[in-house]
Design goal:
Layout: E1 2-5, E2 12-15, E3 21-25, H1 28-34, E4 39-45, E5 49-53, E6 58-62, E7 69-73, E8 88-92, E9 104-109, E10 125-126
Parallel strand pairs: 3-9, 9-10
Antiparallel strand pairs: 1-2, 2-5, 3-4, 4-8, 6-7
The structure holds zinc ion (2 copies).
């Protein structure tokens, strides 16, 4: 069992297990939403994920024309797990306790869209655009 929360603690969640794989999206939407080089997530099966508190503090935003939503805390602005898929939760890796011990970057997506200053230095796979191979 892993439990985690946003910076202010208003929103908390837990899940049974996550794969050790971290996926990093370098697209411009993720860059803007984090103010960094993108966002790193781990994938958790929906039926193993539970919100513990603070769902009334969750705000979602999606770019017009896109079904992909960004989930964040209305109090502190921390990115939150997103219900963007019927089967999986996209849990920001930076929220995980223990500084994400045991996790490893498996793949980067939208690499061709990354910021000019964004140098990828790990051994994760690099996909120029989206990765449709799933997490397996
Ligand atoms: Zn918060
Ligand atoms: Zn992205």
């Amino acid at each position: 069992m892993v439990s985690a929360h946003c910076n202010c603690g208003a929103v908390a969640f837990e899940f049974d297990s996550a794969s050790e794989d971290v996926f990093i999206c370098h697209c411009f939407i993720c860059r803007r939403s984090t103010g960094a080089n993108g966002i790193a997530v781990v994938l958790v099966p929906r039926d193993e994920f539970r919100w513990l508190q603070g769902q009334e503090n969750i705000v979602t935003w999606s770019r017009p024309g896109s079904q992909w939503a960004t989930w964040f805390c209305r109090v502190c602005g921390s990115r939150l797990p997103g219900e963007n898929d019927s089967e999986r939760m996209f849990v920001p890796a930076g929220l995980l306790p223990g500084a994400g011990a045991g996790l490893k970057v498996r793949a980067h997506i939208w690499v061709d869209s990354r910021a000019e200053w964004d140098e990828i230095g790990d051994n994760g796979q690099q996909h120029p655009e989206q990765y449709v191979g799933g997490a397996g």
